[in-house]
Amino acid sequence: MSIRPERVELKTPAQIAVMRRSGKLLHEVHEMLAAAIRPGITTNQLDTLAHDMIRDAGATPNFLGYQGYPATLCISVNEVVVHGIPDDRPLQDGDVVSIDGGLIIDGWHSDAARPHIVGAPRSVSDQELVRITQEALWAGIAALASAQRVGEIGAAIEDFVAEAAGDSLSHLEGFGGHGIGTAMHQAPDVMNYRTRSRGPRVRSGLCLAIEPMLIQGPGNWELEDDDWTVRATAGGRAAHAEHSVAVTDQGLLVLTEGDGGAAELARRGITAAPDPLAGPGAPRAGE
Ligand code: MF3
Ligand code: CO
Q: From the CA of 111, how far away is ligand 1's center (Å)?
């Protein structure tokens, strides 16, 4: 994406605790959507479910109205890579559907995306697309845990995808992740592949949205006439996965994961930061 000359906004532990509340609610929205997605449901119905859940929790959807964006979610079906606008077409068995959403609590933004297969998978290659996209996200997150520079995230994602998929999957070029905090999109850019920039130094308080976007076959794409929808044009399907992540003195906290990333990071030999919402004095379920 564009060069972002702004300074990186570093967050205090208290601010990261609010970002965790924002991310935790977004995780719950994604859990609700994962339970609701099925053949026959329309993407507009999913959008309404997310909108109402965010509003009922006292939070604000951050995509809605962003540069004129007309919905709460981006829902990208099959050949659509990202920024698909919800509509009234029912989802079909075997569709590959990436749902991207975000919200604001007390001024602090979260942003996360999950790829799904609706009903029965159409092919092993669709299952691999979704699995490798999710694993590529975790490869990027794991790299951040020990990175000196933000550019190491993209290098790790590129290497993981090359190893897992060879040339059967392509990155969506020209799009990437971003800093997140008091705005949804902040410095720095977080690319999904190597670039000439090493990026800014990784330090405590850095909060990033990491978001690999992968396409089956060649990575050709076009922007549709609605000025949002990014569609792969060489025949393949696409998937997108995203988490918002905080770097703290005590390690990484995956703000938009239910357990703060503890389980997935442990699989990669990394200890997650303690969850500020699970600490002593934090409200627990059933109390
Ligand atoms: N998660 C996406 C991003 O970071 C979606 C934002 S586009 C919006 O680019 F307009 F829908 F907000
Ligand atoms: Co994002």
A: 8
Cis peptide before 188 (omega within 30 of 0): yes
Residue where the block lists tokens 């007309």 = 70
* One-letter identity of residue 99: I
Best probe residue, ligand 1, of 1, 2, 47, 63 (max atoms within 8 Å of C-beta): 63
Nearest Cα residue to atom 9 of ligand 1? 177
Give the tens place of pLDDT for each residue, 14-47: 999 999 999 999 999 999 999 999 999 999 999 9
Structure token pair of residue 279: 């600490």
Q: Tell whether pTM > 0.90.
A: yes
Q: Give yes or no for a contact between 7 and 93, defined as CB atoms under 8 angstroms apart.
A: no
- Among the atoms of ligand 1, which is closest to the Cα of residue 113? 1
Domains of the chain: 13-267 (3.90.230.10)
Nearest in space to 275 (alpha carbons), one of 24, 7, 1, 5: 24
Asked if pLDDT for residue 287 goes beyond 50, the answer is no
Give the type of residue at 196. R
For tokens 């995230």, name the residue.
153
In angstroms, the CA 283 to CA 286 distance is 9
230 lines ligand 1 (CB under 6 A): no
